[in-house]
Amino acid sequence: MIPSIRAAKVGDIPMIGQLLHRYASDGRLLGRSESEIKSRLKDFVVSEINGRISGCGSLEIFTTELGEVRSLAVDPEDHDKGIGRLMVNQIESMAQSRGLSRIIALTYVPGFFSKLGYRIVSMESLPEKVFGVCVSCPKFDRCDEIAMQKELAPL
Predict the structure, then answer these.
(1) 11 near 48, Cβ under 8 Å?
(2) Which residue, 46, 47, 58, 125, has fewest beta-carbon neighbours within 10 Å?
(3) 91-100 burial, b for 16+ CB within 10 Å, e for fewer?
(4) What kind and span of H or E run contains 85?
(5) Distance CA 49, CA 75 (A)
(6) Does CATH number 3.40.630.30 belong to domain 4-151?
(7) How does pLDDT run across 71-118, given as a tens digit for each residue?
(8) Domain limits of the chain?
(9) Torsion angles phi and psi, residue 117, rounded to 5
C-alpha cells in the first residue's frame, strides 16, 4: 500500500508521541511531550498506511526565512518505503507556502538529506537554531548531529 501524507490531527498525538519516544530513547532525536505536540500540531504531518500512523515530522519556524525539518520519524517496520522523503517534501511545501526561503535539518543520516538536495553547513551558520533550541538540549555541549540546509524556491 502506498503511504499517504496528511496534516496531523488531535487523535494522532499519542502515536506521534510513541514514534518520537522510540527514537528519543536511543538518542537519535529529541523527544517531545504530548502537550508540546498538541501545541504545535498545525506544524506536524503524518504518514498513514491502511489507517495506521507510520511516520511523523514537523516544521519548526525560526525566522521569516528559516525553518527546520524536525521530529522526523518512521516506524521501523515501514523503512525503505519512501515515507521519510514524502514527509520531508510535504514539510518543505509547508515552509514554502509560509514564505520561508531556507530549511535546515540536524541529522545523523546526512546521506538521506543529501539525496533531497540538502548540503552540510556549520552549526555556527545557524545561530537561530543554536540559540533558539539547542541551548536547552541535553547534548548542547557535545552535539554530534550534522547540520544541513536547503534553499527553497519561492512559490
Answers:
(1) no
(2) 125
(3) bbebbbeeeb
(4) helix 83-97
(5) 11
(6) yes
(7) 999 999 999 999 999 999 999 999 999 999 999 999 989 999 999 999
(8) 4-151
(9) 95, 10
